[in-house]
Amino acid sequence: MSSTSSLGGSCPVPFLQETLFPHTGGFLEGRFCMPLSTLQPNLTCCLPCPMTDWTYSDGFESRTEIANWVNVAAFVLSVYLLLSFAVLPVKYTHRHYLSVCLTLGVVFVELAFIIPLGTKPAQCFNEITPNDMRSSGSCAISGAFLLFGGWAIVMWVFVRALALHLQICWEVVLGNKSFYTALVLGWVIPIVGLALTLSLTGVSFRFGNVCHINHKDALQDFWGPLLAFAALALVLQFVTIGYCVQVYVKSLLDDKQTTNSSSQPPTYQGSMKTVTARQTYRRVKRVVELQWRGASIVLVIIAEVVFFSVVFVSMDNSTKVDPALLQKSQPWLTCLVAHGGDKNKCLSLASGLVKSEGIVLAVLIVLGLSGFWCLMFMGRWSMALGWAEFFRTKLFRKSEFVSADARRFSNDPHRALTSPRMRTEFSPTDTKQELYGSARAYVTPVSSYSHPTPPNQHKDWDPRLTHAKPMDLSGKAVELNIYPG
């Protein structure tokens, strides 16, 4: 920024006189100003905006764009993952609403870094005042996406950890109520948190071309609740892991006791304990085999959240403009005045006031790695096979042979080809009618002395008429008495 005498006023180079600038517009609390009553009464001098141009080496702003391009690559991977969930069958993706919603939260964070690449926003409202969400539309959008995405990621990580804990430790089957409860926790709480954060604290340009949350009440409005849910998710995850270890060790001990007591007759109580332990182990093993990816991404995301939360909170505490900071920065400010605004000769003194470039760049890049973690843990090699099958069947499908009659009748609504109606119930009467209904009538020949006799429908079978009477040794028949029943 320009530091001519008309803007500098009575302030030494490179400072600018605050009274020469309006007290409206931009983020006024983001000014780095200090009173210099020794030079002139009621004189307040401010460091030109942006402050990072004076505390970091040349090219720092351009290096922060690395995080933007990392998020572009991560956004491509996230879109691929979401398209796979939406298009491919479940057998290829094993999709679940917990995975889909977590990926959507990551996409919001990635969009917060992608938008400034297209809008190229101005970080400063004037020579000493940074822009905020009220003076820059790009700042408002990128800051809102960043805060909402951060909230959504933490909440869906918490919901995933809670669901895994309930399934493994309490054998709870997640149904429709769990689904709607998860939607409320995963989306409504981030919306409420975003509204409170923007109204009470706001966002502004602090470093880089993405707006971040301001200093005032940031710990109470954003970082505190965010870290609380992250801590709950971490506790649930550790309890679940501890339960799995306990079940595994218990199954090993039960098998060992069964082997040692094999010479003794088994008891019912001991057999039931062994079976119960083995059943629990098999159930837990099955759930862990299905959910290990979700458990892993919970731990990774929580580690990221803790890392950049600690860095941002420490930056808020160290860069908040107050008398303590001004007193601490006196050697650096004196150096700038002594060297006529040559910051390179005073960077060693500024390093104690702000976080190092490596940490700041690491935080920005870590924010963009969430998309890579999602693809690593929730993506599968079978998705590639699913896309190959999709393109093979949808785009490169060979035309099948269709007869001329089928083509001619296919457009006629009165000649719809339908499959024959299947008989739903089996009836002996229907079968008999089908067998005898179409039989030809019997015609008696002229020269025949026989004629067919219809069967008697009301005559019972008498076994005495179908068996010959037994004979005794003398050849006479013996009369038998047949008792009914």
Features:
485 residues, mainly alpha, Rhopdopsin 7-helix transmembrane proteins, three-stranded antiparallel β-sheet, two-stranded antiparallel ribbon, 5 strands, 59% helix, disordered C terminus, GPCR_2_secretin-like, transmembrane, GPCR_2-like_7TM, membrane
Separation of the first and last Cα atoms: 119 Å
Number of helices: 17
Level-1 CATH class name of the domain at 52-260 and 268-394? Mainly Alpha
CATH superfamily of the domain at 52-260 and 268-394: Rhodopsin 7-helix transmembrane proteins
User: Residue ranges: pLDDT <50 for 5 or more in a row?
Assistant: 413-419, 431-437, 475-485
Membrane topology: Multi-pass membrane protein
Keywords: Membrane, Transmembrane, Transmembrane helix
Pfam families: 7tm_2
GO biological process, one term: cell surface receptor signaling pathway
Question: Could you write a compact summary of the structure shown?
Answer:
With 485 residues, the chain is mainly alpha-helical. The chain is 59% helix and 3% strand. It has a domain at 52-260 and 268-394: Rhodopsin 7-helix transmembrane proteins (Rhopdopsin 7-helix transmembrane proteins, Up-down Bundle), CATH 1.20.1070.
